[in-house]
Structure formats: C-alpha cells, structure tokens
Amino acid sequence: MLKLSSTIRSLSESTETGTIVRRITDNPNYVPALRSNEYFLNRNGHAVPAGFGGYLFATLPVEAAAPLNSFLLDPEVTFLEHGDVIRITPDRKSLRALYRRNSPHNSFLLTERCNNFCLMCSQPPKPNDDSYIIDQILRTVPLISPETRAIGLTGGEPTLLGSKLIDIVQALKANLPHTAVHMLSNGRNFKDIAFARTLANIQHHDLMIGIPLYSDISSIHDYVVQADGAYDDTIRGIINLKSLGVKVEIRVVIHQATYARLADLARFIRRNLTFVDQVALMGLEMMGFTKFNLEKLWIDPKDYQPQLVEAVEILDQARIRVSIYNHQLCVLDPRLYPFNRKSISDWKNEYMPECDDCTRRQECGGFFSSAKLRYSRYITPFKTAS
After folding, report:
1. Alpha helix positions (H), the chain
2. Under CATH, domain 107-373 is a member of which superfamily?
C-alpha cells in the first residue's frame, strides 16, 4: 500500500503563498524556458539544476543552502516520479500526490458532501464547505499527461457541485481528449432532466457514471442508503442519463442487506434496465461507516456464492456486461473466474500472509488495506497455475 499523503519539511524560504499545485520532473535537462512552472525532484542531494519553480529532495542537499522553494520529502513518498502532480500546503507542512503518471488508478475526490448516508459508505459525508477542492482540481487537470487512459471522479456526491461539476468535465474533455472518465454518483440529481442534459451536452467521448442500485425493492435500497425516496430518484436518473446517450454502470455492493435478492435485482435489470452499459457486483470495503455497521453488513463472500453465480448468469445471458470487483479468486465459484476483475486501486491494494505462496496471485484482485479488520475464513492459496 502506498501513502499518498505525508508530512514535508521546508528547507528554504518560499516565494509561493497558499496551496501549491505543481507537476514534478527528475530530468535535469528539462527545457529551461519551461522550468519555472515545474518542481525538480532531486534524489541524491547533488547537482541541483537552476531555474525550477521549486525543489523536492529525497535526501538533504549536499550544498549548505538549498534553493528557494525547497522541501525535504518524507521517505514514504519517494515513489514520486517524473510527470506526477503534487499539492503542497506549506503552513500545514503537508504534501499529497494528486496524480501519478504511471498509475492506472488516478481519481479525484470532488466533495465530501452527500445527500445519501449509506450504511457501508467508505467516505462518510461531511457537511463542510469544501469548494476549495474544485480550484485545485482545475489547476491539476492541465498538468496531467494526455496519455492517461482513465481518470476517476468520486465523492461524496459529485452532482451536489452543480455547475462546478460541469466545469470539471469540460476541463477534462478539453485537456485530456483521449482519457476516459468514470464518475461515481448516487444518480439522484440526474432526475432533473435539464441537469442531465447539461452534462450530456458536453459530449465527452468516454464518460461513464457508476450508480449504485441495491435492490429491486425500493424500501431495501432506501434503507441501505438511508434516504427516503432515493430509489425512485436513482431510477429516474439512470433513465434520463441513458436517454441522453451518457453511459451508465450499475454498482451493487454485496452485504447482508443486499445478497439475498441479488438474483431478483439481476432479473429487474434484465427486464427494465437492459440498456445499461455494465453491472459491477462488488465486495465490501472495511472503511468509514462499514466499521461501525459491521455486524449488520458482514457476510463471508464464500457464503453468498450461490446468489452471486445466479445473478451473474442472468445478466450474462441477457448480454449485459457484468464484472465482479473487490473479491479474492480463491473464494469465488470457479464459474465466476471469467468475470473477476482486479479493481482495487494500487495505493490501497494488499495481500494477506496466506497469499504468499499462491500461484495465481497475479490474477487475483487482492484485498483493500482495511480488510485486516475482517476477511473470508476461506482464503486458501492456489498451489498450481491455471
């Protein structure tokens, strides 16, 4: 697991005020005319090239005086590389990696506010005004490599940003014309057809909205998200988006409140929402509210395999693309192997000691780093390759 945030130590005076968002390079031959907008990453303390906007040192500089805007990195973030984008908050002595060029798992948290209160929310909502995040994202997007394959947008609930969300999607389209965007939303605000149309009118070439639907019965869905009327809003939102040509993924987190009717939900989707672009059936992440509601939510994945197999077969036979996320290969019914995906972001993906000698580890989705709180009692390493 990588730590994307760390403390940072100032080594010199700073000419920059407020929050600093910069792309970094470790190329000492970087074009001189462009250096003032970049931060140089120095790994050995020697040979500090002049002209950069700032400097990050993995070790203390050999010279007595460091250049202006110099910072000493914590060893936990020395994974930073050329092309990465960072945020430095000098008064808090903090650094965060906002974007990693060589990672396939880059995403932006747009807000921590939400109009649901899901039992298993891994990012519990906060009512604070966090609109400052938008400015940081809009400063970051032009610094991202245009070769980036995909960017995620998460929350909280992104649609609560209203027109600011539209600004972000427009910025992604303008600066990253070949990059796919996957946004997580509860879908409720897309019941407003005008808002859904505004998003659709951007005509992003590859935008998909991942929307949770937890049951074919409205009261169960509303219970899981802890919001009356959420089910109707969500269904209307899905239909509006698809009617306007926006791709939609339905997401189902599997736990005690949702596993029993997985097949019924699959039939509902086959009958009423067959036009969605894909369905993701997801394992539980032991973060946020999940830890507090664990006894209400936890079921060993091995124990819901019959329901999962039936749901996948129903969707697959209807030619609806279906994927299984956040599961370990050894607990899945072998019939589900073709649908399993390695979906956990690299910075929070781990494997348990039981996995050390597994011959199929590279095929397995592994665990969230938080899974040490509780995970399947059936984790068993494969002894031979498939």
Report:
1. 132-140, 163-175, 193-200, 218-225, 230-243, 262-272, 289-292, 294-297, 305-317
2. Aldolase class I (3.20.20.70)
CA distance 59 to 308: 51
Q: What are phi and psi of 7, to 5 degrees?
A: -80, 165
> 121-142 burial, b if ≥16 CB within 10 A, otherwise e?
bbbebeeeeeeebbeebbbbbe
- Domain residue limits, the chain: 5-98, 107-373
- This prediction has a pTM of 0.93
| Euclidean distance between CA atoms 347 and 98, whole angstroms | 12
Residue 184, strand partner residues: 210
Residues 256-266 pLDDT 10s: 999 999 999 99
For the chain, helix (H) and strand (E) counts, in that order, are 9, 16
Contact 325, 279 (CB under 8 A): no
**What residues pair up with 230 in beta bridges, in sequence order?**
none
Cis, peptide link before residue 156, omega less than 30° from 0: yes
